[in-house]
Amino acid sequence: MTSFKILSCFKCLVAATSVAAVVGVGFLFSGFYPMGADDHHNDLTYWALQTLRERSVARAANDIQVPNDLDSSERLLSGGADYNDMCVGCHLKPGMTQSDFTLGLYPQPPDLTQAEIHQESAQVLARKHFWIIKHGIKGSGMPAWGAGHDDERIWNMVAFLQRLPELSSQQYQILSARGVDDSGHH
Amino acid sequence: MKPQTLTYLVTLPALMLALSAHAHAPSEHMKAGQAAAPDCSMMEDMDHSSMNMDDPVMQAMMKKCMKATHQDEADSHDDKTDATKPARHQH
What we know:
The structure holds 2 protein chains of 2 kinds.
Chain A: H1 2-30, H2 43-61, H3 73-86, H4 88-91, H5 100-104, H6 122-135, H7 151-163, H8 169-176
Helix pairs in contact in A: 2-6, 3-7, 6-7
Chain B: H1 3-20, H2 41-45, H3 56-84
């Protein structure tokens, strides 16, 4: 009698899973899910995707070795110019509150001129920034800059990001200006 | 007034307004690679005794501005030298 109940329950479970799979696949092919960036996810979907992203980045960046000389002036100068060329459109600069990208991208790119609200240690934040710049984030508009930039250059940008929230617009201008003799490559 | 004339009167100004509208200042859409020179006037106005020279941000700004100043001096020197040279291709 007991084994019959277990078997019956197992069959119910298989049937329910099959129905859920069919419904799920049907929904995928139906085209009913709104994909426009101006039509936001519901809270549950947003939370799930955000948690997936945060946990994945934290795990992947966990073993990255942070250079000891991250707070050097040379790194700030190199990273500042690259930030201005590659990042400012989405992540803003002192004195800038929005851009076409911050208005239109979803999820909205973080404003890196503001200090992080949840206080992670500088080391953890540096690892996270390095990994994200190097590998990018799927489906977010954040590219993998590691494809065309070596690790040192990415660390320079990480160094600049550490000081960015405390810079004035004048300081930012000086640090990020390439000048005529610094060609960069962008 | 004919409806067709009225349509033109409304549509044409609206079209011209739409074409001339800019979402943002054109300077925000500068092409990448248009290098800007550092604006070091702030450094000149600062009280140098109050600067924290151990701060990497301050060190970086000093380096950038000294480099820019030397570049300007070299450029002006080149201009003066060029001015004293006899013009080439004189016939």
